[in-house]
Structures are given as C-alpha cells and as structure tokens.
Amino acid sequence: MSALHDHTHCIADALTRADALCAERGARLTALRRRVLELVWSSHRPRGAYAILEDLSQQDGKAAAPLTVYRALEFLVEQGLVHRIESLNAYVGCAAPGDVHSGQFLVCEACGDAAEIDDPGVGAAIIAAAAGRGFRVQRPTVEVRGLCKSCQETSR
Amino acid sequence: MSALHDHTHCIADALTRADALCAERGARLTALRRRVLELVWSSHRPRGAYAILEDLSQQDGKAAAPLTVYRALEFLVEQGLVHRIESLNAYVGCAAPGDVHSGQFLVCEACGDAAEIDDPGVGAAIIAAAAGRGFRVQRPTVEVRGLCKSCQETSR
DNA sequence: GACAGAGTGTTATAAAGTAACACCCATGTC
DNA sequence: GACATGGGTGTTACTTTATAACACTCTGTC
Question: Are the CB atoms for A106 and A115 separated by under 8 Å?
Fold first, then answer.
C-alpha cells in the first residue's frame, strides 16, 4: 500500500464489487452503508468506528450517533465486505469479498498498515490443530504484529 | 477444563511457578501483582480487567482503581504469566509460562472456555506466510472461535 | 393505502482503557 | 543515619469503544 497505487480507483472498485455482491445476495447496501464502506476504504489502514463517525459528521455535515456507524459496520462485516481487526478495535476493507476466507492480517507496528493475506497453509494448520483437539472451528482470527517490508527497509 | 480437575491446586501451581520465574529474572512479583494473577486464574475462563477489579474490591475490601489492575496485568503479560485475548478484551493465565510461545487459543462460543495451545504447525505456517511477504513477525495472535469438544457433545 | 419488516435516529448508558501527578517505600550510596 | 533514586501504588479525572431501549421512517407487497 504505497505511493504506487491509484487509491481512488481502488475505492471505486471496492464499491462496485460491493454493489454487485449485495445485489446478488439480495442484501440492501443502503446509501448510509455504502458511505460507511467508502469511509472504511478511505485509507488502507484499519480505521476505528469513531474515526469513521467523525468523517461522517465533518464531511457530510450530519452529526451521526455511534450506533449509526456500528450498525453499518456490523452489516458490512456480516457481508464480508469489511473485516474487524480485534487487536486494534478497528475495521478495514476486505480485499477479496465474495471469496470464502477467514481474514488473516499482517499488521505493521511502524506504519499501521494491515495487509490482508489468505494463506492456505495457515488456515490448514489451524484446522488441523483444532481437529486434533476435537474443537470445531467457526471463525479463526489471525493478526500478526510485526514490521512490514518497507518499514524494515526504511528503518535500516 | 472440567469437573475432573483440582482447580485449587492448579492456581497454587501457577503462583508457585510465577514466584520461581520472577525470582529467577529479578522481576518483582509484588503482593498486588500476585493477587491479580491469582484472580486471573480464579477460573480457567478469560476474565475482563473490570471483573478482576470487582473481585479485588469485594473480596479484599479495597476499592481499587482500574489503573491498579491494568498496571498489574501489564506486568503479568510482559512476564508471560498471563495472555490477553484480544477478541474478548480479557485475560487468562498462561499454562506454560517460561516456555517461549506465542499464545494460540481455541475459544469456545458456548462455554466461554479458552484453551491455550502451542501448535508448532500453526506457528511455522504463520512465519512462512509472513516471510514470503517480507514481513518480520514480532507477535502473532491466533484466536479461533468455535465449539469445544465437550460443548459439541452436549449440544447433540 | 395499509401493513410488515428492515433500516435509521435519538438519548442515555455501559464497558474498556489511559493521562497526569502525588505519594510511598525498598534499595543503594555516601 | 541521612539521602537520593527509581519502581510501584494511589487518586482523580478523562477518553475511547460499544450497546440498550425505544421511537420513527422508508420500502416493497398485497
């Protein structure tokens, strides 16, 4: 997530994909929900619910209540359009909505970027480990803190 | 974590291990910190900071402030005596303090139990996935939601 | 156009976590 | 013994994150 990428384009893409997915599923991507999704995507970094709330208030002029944002986020998470990053209490746009996947993140301590990966090896290892203990997996959460490639290079 | 286990004994064990570890490291396991550790262990379930705070107030009669508990927990987490479960905002005693490990949890949605595992396959898969992307791992978090063995059997 | 149900607004409140600063007390030093 | 030092604790106030309860509105359906 860097200088070399057309961010406006990638927000537009995310919205288009969301429109298509919701239409297909009969889920209602209302104006508010769409707007919240757009605000989540407004950076590639995880954003807190209250940051989004502030955007709504400032950019749109309406003083929204926290619940407004939380309900929209809940919908977006259910639809797989957004992931919640537990260790940050924050939300980030899903790079591959529609695909079945669990949400694995490499969270950089330096720049705050959260790169979503969907590593089959990690997923398989978790399922195997759980199965060995008789545990039925419903929702795996993997959030790896560390330093991303570009931050390692910078700090050197 | 069930009827068949001597819980009193296992709390005492945890405290003994903590004493030994801290002595060895020159870390100060003060009365307060020791007491908080004991309260974390008072069930095998993850406990919130405020639940521990309440215990302190009720059982010990002192009306402690949140910070008191948070500071003790911070110390205990640093020493690896306690893990924080991000997705629950809660803390749980570490089953194997002293050993190097990262904290992987199988969290049962039904009974609330959080079983700590240290599966080498999962750890290795995460490191491999990160390495493939140039990411330097500092602290992996794995929290798997699902149903534990005994809850699956019960619900059947 | 009346109904049902989903979505949204509003107010209040709970839960989780932190900042700033004062005090205490064990330890080592002179 | 007096003293400085620094880690640990207490206290007050506050911020951030999240939810409850209830009323209202919009949208599609018959």
Answer: yes
Query: How many Cβ contacts (< 8 angstroms) between chains A and B?
Result: 117
- Closest Cα in chain A, distance from residue B149 (Å): 5
* Structure letter (DSSP) for residue A47: B
> Nearest-CA distance from A117 to chain B in Å?
8
- Phi, psi dihedrals of residue B24, rounded to the nearest 5°: -55, -35
Give me the tens of pLDDT residue by residue for chain B, a chain 156 residues long.
545 567 888 899 999 999 999 998 989 999 999 999 999 999 889 999 999 999 998 888 878 899 999 999 999 999 999 999 999 999 999 989 888 787 899 999 999 999 999 999 999 999 999 999 999 999 999 999 999 999 999 876
- From residue B40, alpha-carbon distances to A153, B11, B103 in Å are 40, 9, 16
Residues of A in contact with B109 (CB under 8 A): 138
Residues near A28 by beta carbon (within 8 Å), at least 6 away in sequence:
A22
Distance CA A47, CA A93 (A): 9
Q: What values do phi and psi take at B70, rounded to 5? A: -60, -35
CB contact under 8 A, A137 and B144: yes
How many angstroms separate the CA of B70 from the C1' of C16?
A: 10
Rounded distance in angstroms from the CA atom of residue B50 to the C1' atom of nucleotide C15: 8
- 3-class SS of residue B84: strand
Nearest to A92 by CA among A108, A115, A70, A117: A115
Domains of chain B: residue spans and CATH: 7-155 (1.10.10.10)
Strand order from edge to edge, sheet including A104-108? A114-117, A104-108, A136-147, B136-147, B104-108, B114-117
Tens digit of each residue's pLDDT (9 = 90 or more) over A38-79: 999 998 899 999 999 999 998 888 788 999 999 999 999 999
